Amino acid sequence: xxxxxxxxxxxxxxxxxxxxxxxxxxxxxxxxxxxxxxxxxxxxxxxxxxxxxxxxxxxxxxxxxxxxxxxxxxxxxxxxxxxxxxxxxxxxxxxxxxxxxxxxxxxxxxxxxxxxxxxxxxxxxxxxxxxxxxxxxxxxxxxxxxxxxxxxxxxxxxxxxxxxxxxxxxxxxxxxxxxxxxxxxxxxxxxxxxxxxxxxxxxxxxxxxxxxxxxxxxxxxxxxxxxxxxxxxxxxxxxxxxxxxxxxxxxxxxxxxxxxxxxxxxxxxxxxxxxxxxxxxxxxxxxxxxxxxxxxxxxxxxxxxxxxxxxxxxxxxxxxxxxxx
Length: 325
Fold this sequence. Notes:
Layout: H1 2-6, H2 16-25, H3 29-39, H4 42-54, H5 58-80, H6 84-93, H7 96-99, H8 104-115, H9 117-122, H10 125-136, H11 148-151, H12 158-173, H13 175-185, H14 201-217, H15 225-248, H16 259-263, H17 266-275, H18 280-304, H19 315-318
Helix pairs in contact: 3-4, 4-5, 5-6, 5-8, 6-17, 6-18, 8-10, 12-15, 14-15, 15-17
């Protein structure tokens, strides 16, 4: 996973050329600090400068980003997933892996936030705040995850689920006001309220369907029930963000990306679902149906969205390959 992400060419991914440009422009620490002064997110610009001191080849930059993102998710999955195979499969096919091919800064922030899942489950507030603030250094949107610690817990009751949905509806109703407040933090957030023809309908619809399934399945959960409750509440909130983005038809590259922080819970929800299917025949049916749906989604995301296809190697690497780039 690290090499596929790190050895790609600059034209694989919509935003990849921009990051190559940043890597080319930031030659000194002063350059990095200037970027931080203009845009915030000092952690990313200083990290970019550090990678530039190692090599002027952008492959080193991409590999370092991949090590951080894949490493954070892998550590969290290995420690907290009820089934590693299912979780890694979801991580790849649901787009969490390929997301940082485009949104590198937020990709790193989401990966660091994944490390905060442990403190969230264990109710360790100081460690949770520390991870969120570290993620904030790479993308400002991570700061919105601070109050999440107070909202999400192991409560699996319908009342709690409805409360989460209610907060999501209220947030949707006040969306334009939230955008106005966001522009006070960063002018780039002004585009989040812009309408667009795409609206991310496919992704939003898929997320909402999953939210309904996870909500209905909770009555069958006996193993890891408390963790399922926390992850369910997180996913329902993310589903509300996705639904709101589609209904309001706003820029899917803006508002919809907020849902990434919450939708990461699917990586762990599916593992718990699988562990709670006792019947061998049911497991087999679930396995085929589940894997087929996700492979189709993975195909659509990589083939049609984000300019990830065709995949080509970094020119320095393709010159060494017998079959070319």
